[in-house]
Amino acid sequence: MTETRLSVxxxxxxxxxxxxxxxxxxxxxxxDGTTMQxxxxxxxxxxxxxxxxxGFSEVxxxxxxxxxxxxxxxxxxxxxxxxxxxxxxxxAISAIRRSxxxxxxxxxxxxxxxxxxxxxxxxxxSVVSVGLHRPLGPDQVRAEWFWTAQGPRDPDDRETWExxxxxxxxxxDHAASVGVQLSLEMYEDTLLGSADSAVRLxxxxxxxxxxxxxDLGNLYRLHRPVEPFLAAMDKCAPFIxxxxxxxxxxxxDAATGTIMSVPSPMDSGTMNYRxxxxxxxxxxxxxxxxxxHYGGDGLAIMARNREYIRGLLTFDLGHSxxxxxx
Length: 326
Hints:
Layout: E1 19-22, H1 41-53, E2 58-60, H2 73-86, E3 89-95, H3 106-123, E4 127-131, H4 138-142, H5 158-177, E5 181-185, H6 195-205, E6 210-213, H7 217-220, H8 229-236, E7 243-245, E8 247-253, E9 258-264, H9 273-282, E10 289-291, H10 298-318
Parallel strand pairs: 1-2, 1-10, 2-3, 3-4, 4-5, 5-6, 7-10
Antiparallel strand pairs: 8-9
Helix pairs in contact: 1-2, 3-5, 5-6, 6-8, 8-9, 9-10
């Protein structure tokens, strides 16, 4: 297959490596019930200033907060100007729960993804992340943690697979034409729901602009047996071009079959990110990170995770003559 990553022009350094904040900790509604999409721009400004206050210089415009692809030209300009004035670079846009193979809204989601890629190019983003996960079901909405309830499942048939390959390749071609990369976010019960399936999908797409976003936290948190984190990481590493990172404490009781998980900072969860980041660097990963967290003060945990990653990069890049990890 062709190379799945678009290389940066110079090796990354630990201090300058882009580590973006997801907008997950910020609500999609204002106090009076106005969507953030339609809110006064001053509300966007406050959110950006809070990110900078917590030490961030890059942001991922997660579309649960604002759908950049659905903003008018004037509002897009305002958003970009406010981010810049606060001291933020819009590094990426993540379009979530907008599956291009959704049996109901797939066509609409494909068009939306194209608009999102155009917005990302206008903002100067390096990457757009898309996935095949669908909106939360009723049981997931009611659950304390949505991943503890069963959500939609992608069918496992040749027609669905070929549709995913064709539509994601179409998005990749569009992204390449405007200088943006496309990253495929891993998520349970989709065609990107395991390391083997995700690698197969990006291989079949076979585009230099399309890589993987190995958000393995989406799988590791499930209250069911999952592939070991590092085993999955070894398979995905050669294909990564963007990386949503978050961690969980996972407990498995072999005697009863009980499996439980709760969100955790990266440095204290049971996902070994020290090893995982080293594996990714050795495989040639040079794309941005995006820190995420669910529950509690998610922004504070994301800032802590950013500094944890920065420390790992400082050590790994500083102890290899080639600029890769040991």
